[in-house]
Amino acid sequence: MNTVIDPRKVSLRKVTSATLSPHAHEWLNDPEVKRFLFNVRHHHYHYEDCKQFIEQAYAVGRPHWGVFVEDVHVGNISSHKWLYADRWLDLTFLIGDRTYWGKGLGTLSAAAAIRYFFRKGFHRIQCGVFSKNQAACSMLEKLGFKKEGVSRETALFENRYLDIVHYGLLETEWKPSPGCDVVFVEDLIHSEELKQPALNKQTPMIY
Which DSSP string do the residues of 37-83 spell out, in sequence order? Predict the structure, then answer.
């Protein structure tokens, strides 16, 4: 039986060249990790690619945290597309270190990020996942996301087409998950950014 992660050991923090996991590129090249990642599954990555992605993400103000367990970088929570003026964003998540699968870390870290975004004034969080990724679908539904639609046969996956399922969560529907308020979340969004004119930024979606 897998042990549930202690939320006191988990933090969401900005990733630096010093804290970036030396295994980050290995996560993205692991067939089990990358199989449900939209763009990642089509490419092979090197460690320098991960370092460059981090630099580019923060350069454009992308909300991107590393998921840390006792100061060890094991995954990421991020947004590759958002519109501050309308208070919505897309959420992406990855637990790259497979030793932490099945311990509730993905759900806990996503819940902590959602809590942060709603407390910052966002109204809507959305996410798209492959229909075959039942673990992600179950996690989103556990967090309160509603299934809003389907893009039919959008992705060629293992020689057959899969649908992409679209989920959304409104601030008024959010019920905080146990432990999410214990997780430390570094402040990456400042109030002046929320006052900017309509802005839709995207960065390379490595992960």
Answer: -TTGGG----HHHHHHHHHHHHHTT--EEEEEETTEEEEEEE-SEEE
